[in-house]
Write a structure and sequence with these properties.
With 107 residues, the protein is mainly α. It has five helices and no strands. 87% of the residues lie in helices and 0% in strands. Helix 1 packs parallel to helix 4.
């Protein structure tokens, strides 16, 4: 019984820690979801797909491998938070530009 309680506390503490890491990037993650929906609605799907794919395989996966060796679970979540933040910023920059709009909208 004491071991089980100690283990539950350890799991809870880790969960709290990683959710605090993730909380900072949630607004950018939400923005990327909304922007992705906007792009899909206008038929501009290639660049958002490349942004998601590129940041996932260029940032999250390699950084997770590096940081997991150093920080364990926290390192993986830090890598994910960084990837989501970069991806969200890229989506917002693309959204602010007008190249994704259909040509008939710009005329």
């Amino acid at each position: 019984e004491p071991y089980r309680r100690q283990r539950q506390m350890c799991i809870r503490d880790r969960g709290v820690r990683v959710l605090r890491i993730e909380a900072f990037v949630e607004p950018l993650f939400g923005a990327s979801i909304v922007a992705s929906g906007v792009f899909q609605g206008t038929g501009s799907t290639l660049v958002p797909m490349l942004l998601n794919f590129g940041t996932m395989w260029g940032i999250r996966v390699p950084l997770s491998a590096i940081l997991a060796a150093k920080w364990g679970l926290v390192g993986v979540w830090v890598a994910m938070a960084l990837q989501l933040g970069v991806c969200g910023i890229c989506f917002l920059i693309r959204l602010a530009g007008k190249r994704w709009l259909p040509k008939e909208t710009l005329q």
